[in-house]
Amino acid sequence: MGLFSKAEFYTTVNHLRDLPLHGGREVAFAGRSNAGKSSAINTLANQTRLAFTSKTPGRTQHINFFSLGENRFLVDLPGYGYAKVPPDVRAHWEGLLSQYLQTREALCGLVVIMDARHPLKELDERMLEWFASTGKPVHILLTKADKLSRQQATQTLNRVRLHLTQHYPHCSVQLFSSLKKIGLEEAEATIEGWFTIKNAPS
Ligand code: GDP
Question: What are the structural domains of the chain?
């Protein structure tokens, strides 16, 4: 049975004070809206409607928790990068995300979803910066890799990997496709490893 095969909805929160005290460990998924985060979560969990692909800005501010069993949780963070977000909504998002990423003890790793055709946008880098201070691992899924030729995909992977080596040494990266089911085992193995590290660095 895969790590995500028993995933089920646990809770949703909109304020840091409401974060659940579950006593376990969690791995968070972040990404620009439309990058393919919901599709990646659903593909990993082998369920079609676990994480809702929602384009309603009101829903985007929520943090959704899914239980994986054995006191492990997957956390679906609000997508970022909407073109027309009012300043107060954006400020709320920045406060929620940066605080969560920097202070959440239960969090043992961050998965950042990026469209393989447009990786490392400004807000992606901001997420990496917020999290870098924790020393905890980050894994980037360059998704929609099916939209690139093999050569383009390899070039993108190498370019992103070089950038990470220079700026974010705790970060790893791989190609992924929800449509073609590329990279599932690699992603799962990386995340499983985080859950089983004895003491995640803080
Ligand atoms: P989210 O906003 O980050 O949750 O993105 P979604 O998962 O809703 O995906 C945004 C769009 O990209 C949808 O139209 C998906 O069908 C499409 N998409 C997501 N993943 C892939 C993929 O791996 N390959 C292709 N070709 N399309 C994808």
Answer: 8-194 (3.40.50.300)
Distance CA 175, CA 151 (A): 12
CA pair distance 10, 157, nearest whole angstrom: 34
92: buried, middle or exposed (CB in 10 Å: 19+, 13-18, 0-12)?
middle
* Count of Cβ atoms closer than 10 Å to residue 95 Cβ: 12
How far is 33 from 128, CA to CA, in rounded Å?
Answer: 16
- Pocket-testing residue among 32, 39, 75, 117, ligand 1, by greatest number of atoms within 8 A of Cβ: 39
Query: Is residue 55 within 6 Å of ligand 1 at its C-beta?
Result: no
How many angstroms separate the CA atoms of 193 and 196, rounded?
A: 5
Q: How far apart are CA 114 and CA 104, in angstroms?
A: 23
One pLDDT digit (tens) per residue for the chain, 202 residues:
688 988 999 999 988 899 999 999 999 999 998 999 999 999 999 877 777 655 555 455 789 999 999 999 999 998 888 777 788 888 888 888 899 999 999 999 999 999 999 999 999 999 999 999 999 999 999 999 999 999 999 999 999 999 999 999 999 999 999 999 999 999 999 999 999 876 544 4
Which tokens sit at 25? 């460990």
